[in-house]
């Protein structure tokens, strides 16, 4: 099988996992109410936090386990099918009279499985070749298109029935498992180390802290929009489908620009995409929060998507630039741990800030965080990128 075909299939698997996840977001208020919660921002927050707490706990474990076993494919299939089962159990919860506390537990167990499918699919992409920007660009466009489609279709499904997104999510995870089962496992032959050794390698490369920090803040923003963004746009009088369309305004440019901008970062280095992109990302987030009208807020969301597409693939490529082939599973697993922590923080910070203050304060906190990480880490990114315009981090680290 040609590497290009493999790249497309793995990207399709990443896409399917992301669609399954985002299907739930536009109608999260109605879904949580159906599952026994109150349907407000805080109950929605706990519903999303339960899944991402599992992501944080197990992303690195899945990655390091794949390094230790020397295989990715079977673990991806297992994770996807386990996640599908979790969604089906959630869909049955109202009929079974399951409490909302138990629902949160089921949500966490499903997240434990789903993160394996997501994280290792990206790692399998990184195994394909040394063209890290292209590989991560493929992952990025899959993530963006998955989020874009999921936000629209999820809103429509939720308006029809709050439980329909759960059935859709389960179906997509089964599809992801079938797709990955057709792709050869290209885990490097010498990747058979003990679990503790694989995780220990992360401590041996402190340079990973730079992309991890950016990944944390960037995913915090995504988590913020997944929760607070939905409630914010519904405050304009939109239904779940309308809120999904508002999220689509961000996710669509975020998706279609990731692949070309990932290739661009291979050519010009990581500094401009990561640092300049993060500053623009943060400022446009604030513009969304201060927008006086819905049309202006939607236009601002498009700009947020453009800057997000500039940052995302370059940040992921920094991780694969630093890590040796036999460390990629643990390194990208670690990146997803910090990314999931960011999502988790976005839910919590956004939920509590909105509940205790207002939407504008929440948008300011998140937007300024993006600007702050860019300013604080600019010198480090410049150094790692060989002056900002070299071939990336590889030369400076290896030298």
Automatic annotation (TrEMBL):
<dbReference type="Pfam" id="PF07690">
    <property type="entry name" value="MFS_1"/>
</dbReference>
<dbReference type="InterPro" id="IPR036259">
    <property type="entry name" value="MFS_trans_sf"/>
</dbReference>
<protein>
    <submittedName>
        <fullName>MFS transporter</fullName>
    </submittedName>
</protein>
<dbReference type="InterPro" id="IPR011701">
    <property type="entry name" value="MFS"/>
</dbReference>
<dbReference type="InterPro" id="IPR020846">
    <property type="entry name" value="MFS_dom"/>
</dbReference>
<feature type="domain" description="Major facilitator superfamily (MFS) profile">
    <location>
        <begin position="207"/>
        <end position="399"/>
    </location>
</feature>
<dbReference type="GO" id="GO:0022857">
    <property type="term" value="F:transmembrane transporter activity"/>
</dbReference>
<dbReference type="GO" id="GO:0005886">
    <property type="term" value="C:plasma membrane"/>
</dbReference>
């Amino acid at each position: 099988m040609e590497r290009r075909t493999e790249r497309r299939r793995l990207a399709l698997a990443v896409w399917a996992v992301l669609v399954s996840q985002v299907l739930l977001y536009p109608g999260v208020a109605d879904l949580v109410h159906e599952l026994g919660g109150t349907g407000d921002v805080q109950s929605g927050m706990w519903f999303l936090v339960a899944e991402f707490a599992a992501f944080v706990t197990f992303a690195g474990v899945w990655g390091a386990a794949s390094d230790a076993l020397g295989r990715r494919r079977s673990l991806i299939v297992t994770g996807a099918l386990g996640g599908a089962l979790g969604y089906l159990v959630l869909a049955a919860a109202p009929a079974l009279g399951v409490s909302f506390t138990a629902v949160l537990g089921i949500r966490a167990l499903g997240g434990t499985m789903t993160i394996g499918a997501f994280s290792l699919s990206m790692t399998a992409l990184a195994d394909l070749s040394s063209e890290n920007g292209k590989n991560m660009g493929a992952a990025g466009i899959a993530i963006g298109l998955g989020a874009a489609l999921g936000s629209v279709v999820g809103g429509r499904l939720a308006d029809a029935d709050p439980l329909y997104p759960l059935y859709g999510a389960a179906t997509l995870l089964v599809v992801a498992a079938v797709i990955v089962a057709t792709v050869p496992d290209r885990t490097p032959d010498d990747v058979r180390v003990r679990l503790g050794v694989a995780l220990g390698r992360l401590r041996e490369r402190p340079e990973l802290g730079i992309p991890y920090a950016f990944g944390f803040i960037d995913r915090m923003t995504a988590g913020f929009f997944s929760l607070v963004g939905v409630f914010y746009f519904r405050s304009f009088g939109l239904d779940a489908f309308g809120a999904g369309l508002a999220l689509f305004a961000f996710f669509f440019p975020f998706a279609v620009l990731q692949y070309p901008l990932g290739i661009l970062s291979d050519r010009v280095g990581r500094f401009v995409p990561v640092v300049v992109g993060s500053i623009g990302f943060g400022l446009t987030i604030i513009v969304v929060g201060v927008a006086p009208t819905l049309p202006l807020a939607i236009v601002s969301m498009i700009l947020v998507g453009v800057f997000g597409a500039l940052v995302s693939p370059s940040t992921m490529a920094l991780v694969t630039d630093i890590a040796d082939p036999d460390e990629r599973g643990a390194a990208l697993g670690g990146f997803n741990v910090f990314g999931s922590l960011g999502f988790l923080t976005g839910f919590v910070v956004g939920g509590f800030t909105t509940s205790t203050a207002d939407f504008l304060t929440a948008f300011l906190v998140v937007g300024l965080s993006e600007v702050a990480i860019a300013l604080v880490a600019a010198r480090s990114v410049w150094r790692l990128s060989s002056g900002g315009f070299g071939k990336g981090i590889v030369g400076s680290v290896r030298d």
